[in-house]
Description:
Layout: H1 32-46, H2 51-63, E1 75-80, H3 87-97, E2 101-105, H4 109-119, E3 122-126, H5 136-144, E4 151-158, E5 161-168, E6 173-178, H6 186-189, E7 192-196, H7 214-230, H8 232-236, H9 248-264, H10 266-282, H11 289-300, E8 308-310, H12 311-319, H13 337-345, E9 352-353, E10 363-366, H14 368-377
Parallel strand pairs: 1-6, 1-7, 2-3, 3-6
Antiparallel strand pairs: 4-5, 8-10, 9-10
Amino acid sequence: MSKRYSTSPPPPCMEDFLNVKPVAPWMSPVEGDALLDALHDTIRTYVIADDCYVTAMVLWIVHTYCYHQFHYSPLLLINAPERACGKSVALGLIAELAHSPFESANITVAALFRIIEMYGPTVLIDEADTFLESNPEMAGILNKGYEHRGVVVRVETIGDRLQPVPYRVFGPKAIAGIAMERRLADATLSRCVRVQMRRKVQGETVQRLRSADRQKFNHMRSQMHRFVKDSQQELAKGHTDMPSELSDREQDNWEPLFTVARCAGPRWLAKAREAALSIKGSTEEPQSMTNSLLADIREVLPGRQVLYIPSAKLLELLTNDPEMGWSTYNRGSPLTVRQLAKSLGAYGIRSKTVRMPSGLTPKGYEIREFEEVFKRYLSPQNPSDLTQGEVTAVD
């Protein structure tokens, strides 16, 4: 009997979907500021976004070639309020320029951490709004992969035994989705450099990415390799002079990008600073429930020159403003005195018996205890001296 051969194509392998072939560095030295300017112009050619977001994308793309130099690799969040804002185009453009890109959507956790361990790619996840919210384990991989020591451990069958196996998940990752600020946990959002997309209006034009000159992209990738190679010593120094307006986590996020910008020259370092502060100003920093409560307490207390306030009075001030949300906190019912006490207790603020001018002695709070907590856990505000004055309590 003659041997039969299958005519079906061989199954695809991971290398077919990963651009992991090494790119030769550009043959001659590369001017950093000229390279970053060219990247900026290229992104502008295909994407509609404010300049601060384009700057962030440029610096993040370059950091994918040298992320091993840093302690942190921030997530790049490409966010859009609704469809047709160009988020997938932006992610596709990053795939053309970033180091060893791997594009996917709705990837499983098991596949993701194995791919990162084996290939060390720049992971690009589109349509994250459709699955990430209901997949907390995936969010855990993203959070762990933010820090260079990030690993996940799984039990694997090795020979005839079950053994714990660590997988390194540190590396650059970009995710794109719609209204991601409502779908990502605070812990994940805080690790992101956020890029906000918008629809183009009449008069704004962009070119189609599918008709782009791929050779130009290849040249840029080669130039980034050369720039990073020639800047190894400077990149290793990091960047410590971060804007004080940024929180500690925001400084961690931006430090690799500031380092890249500094290596490109003072003009790009200034652009990085401007972008970081502009993005901070246009996106709300994630807040826990208790942190939001603190902020609202600070809002209702300023100007009250008092020493004590009863728990019931503080609760009344919070629930009287419907925009704060405390009047409907419990599925339509207001925040309770017990919930208030429990939330403030986490910051070391305890209710106690306070003596009021009327002679009553209800449970309440000593207002000076809030001052130190406001300084530690809230962003600065015009100071109000809450402890001076003749009034000692609010009935």
